Amino acid sequence: MKISDVKIYTLDAFRTNWAFIKVETDEGLYGWGEASLGTNEKALEGMVEDLKRLVVGRNPLEIEKMCFEVYRDIYWKGGPVLMSAISGIEIALWDIAGKFFNTPTYNLLGGKMRDKVKMYANAWFVGARTPEEFAAKAKRTADLGIKALKWDPFGSAHMTISREQLEKSVNIVGAVREAVGDKVDLLIECHGRFNPTTALEISRELEQFKPMFMEEPCVPDNMDSTAYVRAHSNVPIAAGERGYTKYAFQEMFSKDAVDYAQPDVFHTGGLMEGKKIAAMAEAKHIMISYHNPSGPISNAAILQLAATVPNFVIHEIMLTDGSFRKKITNEEVVFEDGYIKIPDKPGLGIDVNIEEVLKRPYTPRNLRHYIGTVTDIRPKDDTIYYFKGLEDKKYE
Questions:
Q1: What is the pLDDT of residues 98-144, one digit of tens each?
Q2: Structural domains for the chain
Q3: Whose CB has fewer CB within 10 Å in the chain, the N or C terminal residue?
Q4: SS3 of 7, please?
Q5: Model confidence pTM above 0.90
Q6: Bridge partners of 121?
Q7: How far is CA 74 from the centre of its chain?
Q8: Catalytic position from the list 191, 267, 315, 369
Q9: For residues 210, 216, 218 and 222, what is the CA-based torsion angle, rounded to 10 degrees?
Q10: pLDDT in tens, 359-372
């Protein structure tokens, strides 16, 4: 069996763009991966086309060899464009391997350690601006049985934060804590906004609400900044979504920069690289929570990997997305009492409806984080959950 083609399908997902990669073989088996870069999909499409000549003709079951040699044979190493392209192809190969051996991919990665994973909800806050709005949406979300919530309460702040915005942000977190009580974990997203002095000031203000962690407090270009915050903060620190390959995480771990590592498997090199990073973290007693505010293929892939990782702790998932999400794949996310079940179908257990994908062509999307619209991530009139277990609920 040989790889015969590699195709990329880019689609508009309203809040961003998603990029799905299909690897085809000469025996009819194919696999799906995800490599979404959101605002840089044209660069990604070009990289996938460039990598095709290094991939076509290979044995799709020789995944480690292919990734090693493709990375070796690209002169300019690392970075989001190259690594996302490699990752998407690598994930698709694990899908093929699972189908070839007629088993879920987790059995090829060491086997299951767990049948379900605790989840934290992203995107529960659509449209919220005020403490009262965040609190009301948090209460409705917790009432669904969801036990952990993540969000960014920092408006359009960058590097530093005004006294007015800091007070508002603290009030938002306080309102959410009061609304959901002390049994729900709160995870505070910073999106790499702040310098270390500001990040540390914020962590001290938020400590009273006992967050599970504060995510990516500092601009990720300089890991010393994050390490400084972690060394002086009583709030645990998470980071890693913008780390590429095990080498970035070697620096992060050697500098004791995080309590929770958050590699993104479709940016950092794929499922095997995600497994290796988890092992490096395990040796330092650091917990893993894979970054996953993304599309259905990413979610399916991470669930397969998370099932096998000893130090995996909690799964990120977009609680809401446009109703189109139910149309573009056969994704089945089974939610029960704050947990997501691990799927048991061969490979990643997901297939794509290409006709529906083609109805949503690439649309340029700019970053919302620093213009104060970070919560505008879903059409206002779209109220359908895509989870099995929440079918009878509507998002408002």
A1: 999 999 999 999 999 999 999 999 999 999 999 999 999 999 999 99
A2: 3-103 (3.30.390.10), 106-388 (3.20.20.120)
A3: C
A4: strand
A5: yes
A6: 149, 317
A7: 26
A8: 191
A9: 140
A10: 999 999 888 888 88
Residue type, position 377, single letter: I
The sign one gets for the Cα dihedral 210, 211, 216, 219 is negative
Is residue 191 part of the annotated active site? The answer reads: yes
- Give the Cα separation of 186 and 11 in Å (integer): 31
pLDDT tens digits along 329-383 = 999 999 999 999 999 999 999 999 999 999 999 999 888 888 888 898 888 888 8
C-alpha–C-alpha distance, residues 211 and 40, integer Å: 32
8 A C-beta contact, residue 121 and residue 158: no
Task: Report the alpha-carbon distance of residue 209 to residue 180 in Å, rounded.
Answer: 12
Tokens representing residue 235 in the block? 């709030």
Q: What are the start-end ranges of the E strands in the chain?
A: 3-12, 17-25, 30-34, 116-122, 148-151, 185-189, 213-215, 237-239, 260-261, 287-288, 315-318, 333-336, 339-341, 387-388
The pLDDT of residue 29: 98
Name which of 254, 266, 258 is nearest 288 in CA terms. Answer: 258
Distance CA 394, CA 303 (A): 25
Catalytic hit among 158, 267, 291, 369: 291
Active site residue 315: no
Q: Which two tokens stand for residue 336?
A: 């029960």
Please report which confidence band the pLDDT of residue 255 belongs to, taking 50, 70 and 90 as the band edges.
very high
Rg of the chain on CA atoms, in Å:
20
